[in-house]
């Protein structure tokens, strides 16, 4: 049996690959526990500066494995417990200061929508489809869908998505602000890698802290957020990377003025 998640780290780039292609990468217990373990590791390692979240097979993630639910889950308590496990990984990615890019090819549905929104920058293919579809089987949103969807696209559009069996096209998802880029299907993985390498080639620590500030803002009142911004930029200014970049910018500006 293959591992339900593949994980590797190469030169600062962590890659997390959902690996149940035969079930459209839908979550069962094995995938849930592997997801929780790998995401926590990826976001706490000192040698990781960016994360690519992708998937094997023809789709990104179909949410929960409905067949597995029907055959192995005896009660709502079982579903609740499994969702808590997956939520550990969702919190690890969204609360960390490591930027995450998703390569979300094919279809993303149900809880897969929450997995997609764990990323800070999502790439999809021109033929991708994204939807909720929970109510089709009598279930309600989980895996951060109700927590993140309205923040991402607005309450009215979030309601449109969860109250219908609609699948957004890639272009609609882009127009709604749910994804960052739409590319040719065969370019999804490569483009996600390019984005991650862009972060790593630059001030990836600053990108990570910018992500943290945006992600954590709902926890704070306006004045508290201003205080946190001021604290964060002060801490960033004291880092060797920022000192070198600021000095380089100043030197270049001086040379330009003298030219």
TrEMBL record:
Which CDD domains did the record assign? crotonase-like (cd06558)
What's the Enzyme Commission number for this chain?
Answer: 5.3.3.18
InterPro entries xref list: ClpP/crotonase-like_dom_sf (IPR029045), Enoyl-CoA_hydra/iso (IPR001753)
Keyword Nucleus annotated: no
* Keywords linked to the UniProt accession: Isomerase
- One Pfam family from the UniProt entry? ECH_1
Q: One of this protein's GO BP terms?
A: fatty acid beta-oxidation
Q: What does the record give under GO molecular function? A: isomerase activity
Give TM segment ranges. Answer: none
Protein name per the record = 2-(1,2-epoxy-1,2-dihydrophenyl)acetyl-CoA isomerase
Q: Which species expresses this protein natively?
A: Microbacterium invictum
């Amino acid at each position: 049996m293959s591992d339900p998640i593949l994980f590797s780290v190469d030169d600062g780039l962590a890659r997390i690959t959902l690996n149940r292609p035969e079930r459209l990468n839908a979550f069962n217990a094995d995938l849930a526990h592997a997801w929780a373990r790998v995401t926590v590791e990826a976001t706490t390692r000192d040698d990781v500066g960016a994360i690519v979240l992708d998937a094997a097979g023809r789709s990104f993630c179909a949410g929960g494995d409905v067949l597995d639910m029907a055959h192995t889950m005896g009660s709502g308590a079982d579903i609740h417990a499994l969702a808590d496990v997956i939520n550990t990984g969702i919190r690890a990615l969204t609360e960390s200061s490591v930027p995450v890019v998703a390569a979300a090819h094919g279809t993303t549905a149900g809880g897969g929508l929450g997995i997609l929104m764990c990323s800070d920058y999502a790439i999809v293919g021109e033929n991708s489809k994204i939807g909720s579809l929970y109510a089709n089987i009598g279930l309600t949103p989980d895996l951060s869908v109700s927590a993140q969807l309205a923040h991402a696209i607005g309450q009215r559009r979030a309601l449109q998505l969860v109250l219908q069996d609609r699948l957004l096209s890639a272009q609609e998802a882009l127009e709604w602000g749910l994804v960052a880029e739409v590319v040719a299907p065969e370019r999804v993985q490569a483009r996600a890698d390019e984005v991650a390498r862009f972060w790593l080639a630059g001030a990836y620590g600053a990108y990570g802290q910018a992500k943290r500030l945006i992600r954590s803002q709902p926890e704070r009142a306006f004045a508290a957020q201003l205080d946190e911004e001021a604290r964060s930029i002060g801490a960033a200014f004291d880092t060797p990377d920022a000192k070198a970049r600021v000095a380089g910018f100043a030197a270049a500006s001086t040379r330009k003025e003298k030219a």
